Amino acid sequence: MLWPRAVADRIKTGHDRELVHAYPYRSACPSGVWGEQIDGARENLFFAGYTNYFLFLDQPAFADTLRRKLDAGCRVRFLLGDPDGEVTRRREAVEGVALTVSTRIRITLEYLERLGRIPGLEARFSTADDAVHHVGLSLFRFDDNAFVTPHLARLVGHDSPLMHLRRQGPGGLFDRFAESSEELWSRATPVG
User: Fold this and answer.
1) Distance between CA atoms of residues 10 and 85, nearest Å
2) Residue 184: helix, strand or coil by DSSP?
3) Three-state SS string across 129-168, please?
4) What confidence score (pLDDT) does residue 47 get?
5) Residue numbers of the chain with a pLDDT score lower than 50
């Protein structure tokens, strides 16, 4: 009786099996782990961070990687905050850092513009009503894996925690976060 309880206390058995790893800071997740997830995705890359700019800086030849993914038939989406939106302005005041939220969004937009119009590449701004929810939670999806970052108080994204989730079945943590991001995407407006 003692051993089964001890084993059950240490082995993931429910929806917590979907939690692969947790990092106290997004920046503590090695860039190589990000690269493995991006490279491993075959069908769906969904970058639903509010700014997403760090990907172009942290991932070597990220634009080339996206082109390869798109050429192989992978869908690539970016959900961004509106750089001119009220939520963006309020978040800038909260963060109080030199590299403003709107500037970080515009960096991403510049990189996406350089990629050009490629079939399968989509970018949208979250609506004004949804932005308040989007700014507080980032989801980065790589097929059945995802990185989720709940943004804490006045901290910028790299200082907030990150959870690596892997889908194990319907209705788990992965699906809950993915469905929320898909809902934001469904109402978002296309980038120029």
Assistant:
1) 46
2) helix
3) HHHHHHCCEEEEEECCEEEEEECCCCCCHHHCCEEEEECC
4) 98
5) none
